[in-house]
């Protein structure tokens, strides 16, 4: 009996009454003199992440919390959920409902999934411009788990039993809030004169782009004769051969989801694809025409309002634009520049809220292995407030891009294509 009582008292910290979450539901009893939960939470789980883990984790949260607090992202998008709940909270607030007011002030979100899923929810919260935007705790349920690792939640897939979930919720209750830069991406592609209307089917783009939809013709960002997409990222944007391997991995997982049951299997498969895609033998499998310098011109803004060309070494096959000092499962491609580099090149250590993005290049997988050494880092290209890529089609027909773990195949048009990143 003592353990059941202890369990009940602990869960009261998180439980939100149903009427606060469901519009037009009946309020049971008086709520004017009742204190609300100290750490109200909404939980979003990508049930397809982590093999069987996602579904098991969803079930455990549903058993511990009010069923209206836990959402399967495979069935309902977070923007619809949060919009509905916050409209109800605002209406209850106008009526002087103390519990609704407390929930708005103290609400925290838990998202369980890969980096793409976490970025999706971050983007939704940012785009909704809520009066009290809630902080977000990320459960590492993907392959890389860079976002959870950078904010102290670890990178190993969690346990899905009741005790493991309660332990994580205790961490959520005690956690301190941290701010993070929100990087915006604007991508323009010339509309083809013949063929398909969309160069890329929208659902093949990552959530951070297609969830925001294409910019309408009436929008000030729209440009005549172009398809314009906007989105955001919190961890990284990359392109080139690293994104190609990620694309191969995601394609294989879509075809054979039964083969991707746990993090270790996923990471092993990822390593094998790195070999089969030629990342370790790049000079043989990756012609120079597909290297970054041959398909794009890069400009950076180191001082506000001043663009300058960024020379890219001809040997660079992959370029990574980093917001967090975590990539490929917790590695830090930027490293920590010594005092001479800081003085001579005006470089600084990476911070998640400094308004700067770190641009790093890699030649091949062997170059990437230097990150395993204590002071290893990639080729530091620049730190900037904004970066712009102007793509053209030469010998290469396409390249690969990736945002926060979600890759896509990007056709290179005959005419200009301009992705621009800014904080």
UniProtKB/TrEMBL annotation:
Residue ranges of domain DAGKc in the record: 36-189
Q: SUPFAM superfamilies attached here?
A: NAD kinase/diacylglycerol kinase-like (SSF111331)
- What's the catalysed reaction? a 1,2-diacyl-sn-glycerol + ATP = a 1,2-diacyl-sn-glycero-3-phosphate + ADP + H(+)
InterPro entries named among the record's database cross-references = ATP-NAD_kinase_N (IPR017438), DGK (IPR037607), Diacylglycerol_kin_accessory (IPR000756), Diacylglycerol_kinase_cat_dom (IPR001206), NAD/diacylglycerol_kinase_sf (IPR016064)
Which GO molecular function annotations are given, in alphabetical order? ATP binding; ATP-dependent diacylglycerol kinase activity
Could you provide one GO biological process annotation from this protein's UniProt record?
defense response
Note whether Nucleotide-binding occurs among the keywords: yes
Look up the signal peptide feature and give its range: none
Report keywords, A-Z: ATP-binding, Kinase, Nucleotide-binding, Plant defense, Stress response, Transferase
Q: Which GO terms describe its cellular component?
A: membrane
Q: PANTHER family, from UniProt?
A: DIACYLGLYCEROL KINASE (PTHR11255), DIACYLGLYCEROL KINASE 5 (PTHR11255:SF98)
Q: Please state what the protein is called.
A: Diacylglycerol kinase
Origin organism is Phaseolus vulgaris (Kidney bean)
Taxonomic classification: Eukaryota, Viridiplantae, Streptophyta, Embryophyta, Tracheophyta
């Amino acid at each position: 009996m003592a353990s059941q009582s202890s369990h009940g008292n602990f869960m009261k910290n998180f439980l939100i009454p149903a009427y606060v979450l469901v519009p037009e539901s009946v309020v049971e009893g008086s709520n004017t003199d009742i204190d609300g939960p100290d750490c109200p939470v909404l939980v979003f789980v990508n049930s397809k992440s982590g093999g069987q883990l996602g579904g098991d984790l969803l079930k455990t949260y549903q058993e511990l919390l009010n069923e209206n607090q836990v959402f399967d992202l495979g069935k309902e998008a977070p923007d619809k959920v949060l919009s509905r709940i916050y409209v109800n909270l605002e209406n209850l607030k106008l009526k002087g409902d103390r519990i609704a007011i407390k929930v708005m002030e103290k609400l925290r979100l838990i998202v369980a999934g890969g980096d793409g899923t976490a970025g999706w929810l971050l983007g939704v919260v940012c785009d909704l411009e809520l009066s009290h935007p809630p902080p977000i705790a990320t459960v590492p349920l993907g392959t890389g788990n860079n976002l959870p690792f950078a904010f102290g939640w670890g990178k190993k897939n969690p346990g899905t039993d009741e005790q493991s979930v309660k332990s994580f919720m205790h961490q959520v209750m005690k956690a301190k809030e941290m701010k993070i830069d929100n990087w915006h991406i604007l991508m323009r592609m010339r509309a083809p004169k013949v063929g398909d209307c969309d160069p890329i089917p929208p659902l093949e783009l990552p959530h951070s782009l297609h969830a925001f939809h294409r910019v309408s013709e009436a929008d000030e960002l729209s440009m005549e004769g172009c398809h314009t997409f906007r989105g955001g990222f919190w961890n990284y944007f990359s392109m080139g051969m690293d994104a190609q391997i990620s694309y191969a991995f995601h394609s294989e997982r879509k075809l054979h989801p039964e083969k991707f049951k746990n993090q270790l299997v996923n990471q092993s498969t990822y390593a094998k694809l790195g070999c089969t895609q030629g990342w370790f033998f790049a000079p043989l499998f990756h012609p120079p025409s597909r290297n970054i310098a041959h398909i794009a011109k890069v400009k950076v803004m180191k001082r506000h309002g001043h663009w300058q060309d960024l020379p890219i070494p001809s040997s660079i096959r992959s370029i990574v634009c980093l917001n967090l000092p975590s990539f490929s499962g917790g590695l830090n491609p930027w490293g920590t520049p010594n005092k001479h580099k800081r003085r001579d090149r005006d470089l600084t250590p990476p911070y998640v809220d400094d308004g700067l993005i770190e641009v790093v290049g890699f030649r091949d997988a062997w170059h990437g292995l230097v990150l395993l050494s204590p002071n290893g880092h990639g080729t530091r290209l620049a730190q900037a407030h904004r970066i712009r890529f102007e793509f053209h089609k030469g010998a290469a027909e396409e390249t690969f891009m990736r945002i926060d773990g979600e890759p896509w195949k990007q056709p290179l048009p005959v005419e200009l294509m301009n992705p621009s990143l800014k904080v």
